[in-house]
Amino acid sequence: RGTAAAKHRTFEAHESGGMQRQFTRFVGSPSRKNYLAVRDAVLKVTPLPMGAADLTDLAALLEGGAFQEVLDRIDLLPASKVLSPRIHYFAAEAADGLGDDEASELSRFLFVLCLKGLLATGEGTQAAPYSVCHVTDEHDLLEAGGHEPAAQSLVAQEGRWCDVVTCADGREVWFDVTVLFQPIVRKARSRARSLAARSARAK
Fold first, then answer.
1. Of 20, 99, 106, 144, which one has the greatest count of Cβ atoms within 10 A?
2. What is the pLDDT of residue 5?
3. Residue 96 belongs to what H/E stretch?
4. What is the pLDDT of residues 154-198, one digit of tens each?
5. SS3 string of 162-195?
6. Integer Cα distance of 145 and 119 in angstroms
7. How much is the pLDDT for 188?
8. Distance, CA of 142 to CA of 165 (rounded, Å)
9. CA 156 → CA 10, 54, 59, 105, 161, distances in Å?
10. Is the pLDDT of residue 13 over 50?
11. Spatial CA neighbour of 141 closest among 174, 168, 110
């Protein structure tokens, strides 16, 4: 099953040699090191990962029974989808709806695998926050832990950006989202340099 998982449809559309090797290692051992290696590889190919709107659209299609369309839309998503527990859950539900038991089982395996990888990245504390690939991963981890989010804030800490979720029971769960901000920061800096150069030429 591990070999099949490494060649699953959620990966094939964006496959490259390096990404495939990293993903295969992760499937074999969903450790912190292997999870972060895959995350870095997929974000290098598609720096802006899929967003919450993509998952909202898929949920609506699934609710409406458009199972094949769910799978077709998943194929078109950025490479970061391979590390999204929610994407694998949607793929499993869609496969169930189409009567494809083998694909459903494989997607559920990857769903659990991605959760294990996320959990391996930290402890959810200020000192050891979980490292995520998508903001929506935060909700998957909270749900898996039985935590109900009540409030959320973005905190800058020692060169990192962290989402801090306060749960209904008062517990705080920390998520390192620094990699999600890097493309935005680079774009802003590039724009600032461009504007500065344009202004200098105008003088």
1. 106
2. 53
3. helix 85-97
4. 998 888 899 999 999 999 999 999 988 765 555 544 554 565 556
5. EEEEEECCCCEEEEECHHHHHHHHHHHHHHHHHH
6. 10
7. 43
8. 9
9. 33, 27, 32, 40, 5
10. no
11. 174
